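Deliverable D2.4 — example input (structure tokens):
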């Protein structure tokens, strides 16, 4: 940490990249022991959304690596999740399948497009519904503007994938409540 501060005070460009296009935030994104370095860097003039040569942001890499502490720091400082749509769709579908509410909340907080679909046009909502993961569905319904009517390649919506009538009714109520509360008042 002291070396980083010394290099920075002597004019080191914090947005410098290596041969893979990675900046310092990319390099530490997967290292769970670098929280203090991340906290230092986000308070400096640094590009939080610098992309590596695979067009991925440091926030995407931190979430992918389960480095939740660093991801939360980046989200709190306005970083964006950037990755090509197929990578993002894979991450989102895995989140839905595994019921990973923590990662989904980070993606929602960073204003990520959570409606990105995989090659079968299945979304995080489709996978969560098919697996019966109420927590993910509740989060999508209450804390985002996720469209539960998106259709996969078999023409099924997220609602069609929910096996439990009680769960479907709960999610429909949450979505309806969200829609009513977001309507402008005349």
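Example output (designed residues):
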């Amino acid at each position: 940490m002291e070396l980083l501060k010394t290099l920075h005070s002597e004019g080191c460009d914090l947005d410098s990249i290596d041969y893979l296009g990675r900046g310092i935030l990319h390099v530490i994104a997967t290292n769970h022991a670098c929280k203090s370095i991340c906290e230092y860097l986000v308070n400096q003039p640094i590009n939080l959304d610098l992309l590596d040569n695979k067009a991925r942001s440091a926030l995407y890499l931190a979430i992918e690596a389960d480095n939740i502490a660093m991801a939360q720091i980046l989200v709190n400082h306005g970083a964006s999740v950037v990755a090509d749509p197929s990578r993002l769709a894979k991450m989102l579908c895995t989140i839905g399948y595994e019921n990973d509410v923590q990662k989904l909340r980070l993606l929602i907080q960073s204003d990520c497009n959570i409606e990105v679909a995989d090659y079968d046009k299945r979304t995080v909502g489709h996978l969560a519904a098919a697996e019966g993961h109420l927590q993910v569905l509740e989060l999508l319904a209450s804390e985002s503007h996720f469209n539960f009517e998106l259709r996969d390649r078999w023409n099924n919506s997220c609602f069609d994938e929910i096996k439990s009538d009680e769960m479907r009714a709960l999610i429909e109520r949450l979505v309806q409540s969200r829609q009513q509360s977001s309507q402008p008042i005349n």
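The radius of gyration is 19 Å.
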